[in-house]
Amino acid sequence: MKRRALKTIFDWVSSKLSTAPIEEQIKVYEALGHVLPSEDQRRRATEIAVSLSEVAKLQLDFTRILFSGLNQSKSRHRGDGGDGE
Length: 85
Fold this sequence. Notes:
- The chain is mainly alpha-helical.
- 82% of the residues lie in helices and 0% in strands.
- It has a domain at 21-78.
- The chain is built from three helices and no strands.
- The chain is elongated.
């Protein structure tokens, strides 16, 4: 019974995690890193949380670089008559 209940919870969490924002995924895996039954499961959940945190940082860095480049491009085009061509 306990195993089936855990599987039901796991399946539900997995389906929600796949569509959740990365920040929410990190929180869930951090929490799982404290409560899962085996040391190996806790360690793996913590590793996933760390990896997702690194991904979130890379996404933020990329977004900053992308928008920085777009803003520079817009300012250059404004000086050429405004048509950007």
